[in-house]
Amino acid sequence: MGRRVFLSILGIAFYGKCRYTKDDFVGTETTFVQQNLLEYLQQKEGWGKQDQVLMFLTDLAKVNNWNKDIRTRFSSRDQRDVPYIGLEKILLDMDMLFQAVHIPEGKSTEEMWELFEVIYSQLQEGDELYLDITNSFRYLPMLLVVLVNYAKMLKNVTVKAIFYGNYDARDKVSNVAPIMDFLPLSVLQDWTSATSDYLRYGQVEKLYDLSESSINPILKDPSTRTDDVKLLRAFVKRLKDLVGERIICRGLTIIENKNVGLLEKASKDIQEVTIPQLKPVFEKIKESLDIFGAKEDILNCIKAARWCCDNKMYQQTTTLLEEGLITFLCCHFKLDYKEKNFRDLMGQCLSAKTLPNEKIIFNDSVLAEKLLDDSVIWENKQFVTSFQCIKDLRNDYNHAGFNKDPKKVKYIIDNVEKLMDNIESILSKI
Q1: Which of 181, 199, 214 marks a domain boundary?
Q2: In a shared domain, residues 152 and 266
Q3: pLDDT tens for residues 156-178?
Q4: Using only C-alpha atoms, what is the Rg of the chain?
Q5: pLDDT of 408-429, one tens digit each?
Q6: Does any domain span residue 303?
Q7: Is the dihedral of CA 390, 393, 398, 402 positive or negative?
Q8: What range does the domain containing 95 cover?
Q9: Model's pTM, two decimal places?
């Protein structure tokens, strides 16, 4: 487990006093939202001396709002010096473990990138981040969103909270201002990115990891533990199982299609999602499943091959296409497609039609002769040719091109996609 890190950029303005509140927490009256945020973390998250506070400040912020020796500051409203305590003194009194880090003023693109690098350099592998975006540069939220996504990938950090102390929304009577947590926006972005990976490439690991990391805390809290949350988690797990069947090419399971039925049931049962804006994202995932029927179907391997092809999984496409066609042939001839001898016989019949000058040794020559008389299948030259091309491509692919005439990458991709289209067209007419 990495460090817990509170990260804040201190501004230069003269800040008015108030108390900040979140849920049932109300902080002490303070000039700096950072004080109340850390009080909140102490109370709600058990924040202690082992946790790290990173304060980023410009030279002017250091002079105006940080130094522990600050005792007064000129108030333009009062037109006089008024009592004013620097944030450094406040954190010392709170017995916080903190580090002040110098940053540029951020007035140019070059300084913006310097700021980016300074903050990033302070992060460590596996840090859990609590971000405060209340003060400083107006582009700070955008910068931190980009920086955090960058650090998620390169340093495996996680974001636990994104705080904003809304001073302007304070109650004028009680002088209490709300603390807003923008973490759901970050969560939405993570889910959107993970969904994009799934829809474009069939990659479901990010979705599964998110369902565990973002949903588990919700399930642990009795106030947020709902049936919909449980169903959403179950849906993603079923989706992972479904994708796994296709990646590992589990033909029998694909034909049975039990997971599709379970997925459909889970999706129908889910009425809400934890973040309302996730619902359209979730609907996109459900739409991607429309290609699969929930019933047992020998053509499910072909449908799975199409899904793999659309998701650039060309090796799986060739495997599922060949095995799917063998299954189709077995069923066409009323043979048990689960029986290895019958499946091998289909391949031998294909060789007999495509390699007429070679002597083929059949598992069952009597049955083979009967099968080869079928004009619907074997006189369909397009079917036979496509089947043989798939077989050749699969062999080239699975043997890593170790042969006298290895195919180029572009050739394989182009031909897999073309053969996929051809097979679908042929089967629709048989």
Answers
A1: 181
A2: no
A3: 999 999 999 999 999 999 999 99
A4: 31
A5: 999 999 999 999 999 999 998 8
A6: no
A7: positive
A8: 4-181
A9: 0.79
